[in-house]
Specification:
This protein is an alpha+beta fold. The chain is 23% helix and 25% strand. It has two domains: 30 residues, no CATH class; 125 residues, Peptide methionine sulfoxide reductase (Metal Binding Protein, Guanine Nucleotide Exchange Factor, Chain A). The strands form two sheets. A six-stranded antiparallel beta sheet has the order 3-4-8-7-6-5.
């Protein structure tokens, strides 16, 4: 049976509707971990990016130009260039940091952070482990989540026609 472009798109849509299916698992499994020494990271990153991505720092609110980014495209990890968020999930949370209501499947990993003496969900890039930000439960529909991201931890690639 020959797969037409239309049939392929329908198959992808059906896969997305049921979550992380075989196609999604294959994509998630294909993410190979990137491990570098602190010296190697310092060569790749600016001092601010190193502080955030490798030392779990936080940038000042309203300091990132990505807060005002409204073009269609993808937001990538500044450490390893893995696409983490689609611009379709970005919204203005009025918190001073770029915010998204969902991440691309399999692209971020979470853990509990107690640095402020109460539990928060911290998330990192699935490839390089670079700290991105925290997830809060005060986001918009459909997820109700707010991925509050450090702008220095991201790069933006606009969609080209």
């Amino acid at each position: 049976m020959q797969i037409t472009k239309r049939r392929f798109v329908k198959m992808l849509a059906a896969s997305a509707a049921v979550g992380l299916t075989g196609v999604g698992r294959a994509m998630a499994a294909a993410i190979e971990k990137l491990t570098l020494s602190d010296d190697e990271w310092r060569k790749r990153l600016s001092p601010g990016q190193f502080d955030i991505l490798r030392k779990e720092g936080t940038e000042r609110p309203y300091s990132s130009p990505l807060n005002n980014e409204k073009r269609t495209g993808m937001f990538h990890c500044a450490g390893c260039d893995l696409a983490l968020f689609s611009s379709a999930t970005k919204y203005d949370s009025r918190t001073g940091w770029p915010s998204f209501y969902d991440a691309l499947k399999g692209r971020v990993e979470t853990r509990t952070d107690y640095k402020l003496l109460f539990a928060r969900t911290e998330y990192h890039c699935a490839r390089c482990g670079g700290h991105q930000g925290h997830i809060f439960n005060d986001g918009p529909k459909p997820t109700g989540s707010r991925y509050c991201n450090n702008g220095l931890a991201l790069t933006f690639r606009p969609q080209t026609s």
